[in-house]
Specification:
Layout: H1 18-33, H2 38-53, E1 57-65, E2 68-75, E3 84-85, H3 89-97, E4 101-103, E5 121-127, E6 135-141, H4 151-165, H5 176-187, H6 192-207, E7 211-218, E8 221-222, E9 227-229, H7 241-250, E10 258-261, E11 275-283, E12 286-295, H8 302-333, H9 343-360, E13 364-371, H10 374-400, E14 406-411, E15 414-420, H11 424-439, E16 450-457, H12 464-480, E17 486-487
Parallel strand pairs: 16-17
Antiparallel strand pairs: 1-2, 1-6, 2-3, 4-5, 5-6, 7-8, 7-9, 7-12, 10-11, 11-12, 13-15, 13-16, 14-15
Length: about 500
């Protein structure tokens, strides 16, 4: 074993000494050759580097598989992200371009992603030839600077690491190590789009397809694709939900991978692929959607088929859990009667919109809407009539709010709508349209009217609580003036 203590390099400021780097890289190369196990060899080489330069140097090795960079070994980091996309960071750029990236000042590089705090320089060296490269050897420093002068010894060590990793840099299909990395990373994802993106890339690459896509079922029909993937050179376009519906109806699709010949299905055309690999996404007998890969020439081997089925089953389980979590979040943040945000959901959105307005120095208006006569309607027609009135108010908010506006039922008979980037005149106009829509609504019995209080940041307060308080005061003024009207701070009460 190499005695790395002999190679300890005293810390200093300024540039990392090229001569010291050369000596340490030679010792790391000896450590790399000293053991038979590939993983242990890379670990020992990184140990030599890290121990020689102390906590100032951080090093890692990643391999490329299924369009992601997966961690092989690291030293110096408390925690390191895994599963980097090729479009991310200096490492991704090194792999995409297949050439070294020297970044003396990371703060000046727009692609830099901080894996830990207080980093100064980075060198990312591709492993293996080609574009993209097969992996990356990454070096970062905290205080000393990396420049072209340290490149040669680090590159020589990178070549030795690439040679030692061998098959890991050029896997034949998706071996168990690749799948394990993929499954661990996929299990950390918490959103449908992220899971779908990883699924289509993995299956598309595995089957050598011209394109791949994931479509979820919306009731009994397919929704637009949650994600679509194709290699850069492919001109393929997504298969439409209606075409997927035809394939599902016409073909004996089962729980495994079904290879569909589009000519035999009588759906072939010059714009469509000749073959489609169909992987149903099923959990407990329930179908969530489908994962499809398409190409003019598609003939997966038995091992590829088995791996694709395993991937589909795993991604189906992840999607099922994620969709269930999203439904729980929806229930937690939405009012079941009107399907608007509830008070909890509104407070979260209000805080986010106010932060955005402050950052962009724009204005943010709030309307608070209160039903004038809910008690009377309940007495006249029971709670069913009262519920109809509340739903009519919600419909008025949806109809006369814009797509980016936030609508909510704050509780009881009180509603709210957030209106970003509006002038006071536009705010008044929307308030009047909502008031008129409620007054004109067709209830089974009785007449619905609302009063509206208006307020705007920054004119009427500096915080969400202050804006809401100002709108409430304006609402009380509208009520006191006779109801069925709107009011704003410092403005006359408008008549209904």
């Amino acid at each position: 074993m190499v005695d790395s203590q002999v190679l300890h390099v005293p810390a200093d400021s300024g540039e990392l000494d090229p001569a010291a780097v050369a000596d340490v890289c030679v010792a790391a190369g000896r450590a790399l050759r000293a053991v038979d196990d590939d993983q242990q060899a890379v670990d020992r080489a990184l140990d030599v580097l890290w121990r020689a330069f102390g906590p100032d140097l951080l090093v890692s090795v990643y391999v490329l598989d299924l369009d992601r960079l997966w961690l092989v070994a690291q030293r110096g980091y408390d925690q390191v992200r895994d599963g980097f996309a090729l479009g991310q960071g200096v490492m991704g750029r090194a792999v995409r371009e297949g050439r070294a990236q020297i970044v003396p000042d990371v703060e000046a590089d727009p692609d830099f992603i901080a894996a830990t705090s207080l980093l100064r320089s980075e060198i990312a060296l591709p492993l293996g030839a080609g574009r993209p490269a097969k992996g990356v050897f990454n070096i970062e420093t905290r205080t000393r600077t990396l420049t072209e002068r340290q490149r040669a010894p680090f590159e020589a060590l990178a070549a030795q690491i690439a040679a030692r990793l061998g098959p890991a840099l050029d896997p034949a299909g998706a071996d168990m190590a690749s799948l394990a990395r993929l499954f661990v990373y996929a299990s950390s994802l918490r959103d449908v789009s992220g899971i779908a993106e990883l699924a289509v890339r993995a299956v598309g690459r595995l089957l050598g397809a011209d394109s791949a896509q994931l479509n979820l079922l919306d009731g009994s029909v397919y929704a637009e694709q949650a994600c679509f993937w194709r290699p850069r050179a492919s001109p393929a376009e997504p298969l439409s939900p209606s075409l997927l519906g035809q394939l599902r109806a016409n073909e004996p699709v089962n729980a495994s991978l079904t290879l569909i010949d589009m000519r035999e299905a009588r759906l072939s055309s010059p714009e469509l692929p000749r073959r489609v690999a169909w992987l149903p996404l099923r959990v407990g007998g329930e179908e969530l959607g489908t994962l499809t890969a398409a190409a003019h020439s598609l003939a997966p081997a038995a091992e590829q088929t088995e791996t694709a089925m395993l991937l589909a089953a795993h991604f189906a389980a992840l999607l099922d859990a994620t969709l269930a979590l999203e439904r729980e979040r929806l229930l937690a943040n939405h009012d079941p009667l009107t399907n608007l945000l509830n008070r909890r959901g509104f407070d979260e959105r209000f805080a986010a919109e106010l932060t955005r307005a402050k950052t962009e120095r724009s204005i943010l208006s709030l309307l608070v809407i209160d039903c004038d006569n809910l008690k009377d309607l309940n007495e006249l027609g029971g709670h069913a009539l009262g519920d109809s009135a509340l739903q009519a108010i919600a419909a008025g908010l949806r109809t006369h709010g814009r797509s980016g506006d936030t609508t909510a039922r704050l509780g009881g008979d009180e509603f709210a709508i957030l209106l970003p980037d509006l002038t006071h005149d536009d705010r008044d106009a929307i308030a009047e349209r909502i008031r008129y829509a409620c007054e004109s609504s067709s209830l089974r019995r009785g007449r619905l009217t609302v009063s509206i209080g208006q307020a705007t940041w920054p004119d009427d307060g500096g915080s969400a609580a202050e804006i809401l308080h100002a709108a409430d005061i304006a609402l009380y003024a509208a009520k006191h003036a006779g109801k069925n009207r709107s009011a704003a701070p410092h403005h006359p009460v408008g008549a209904g």
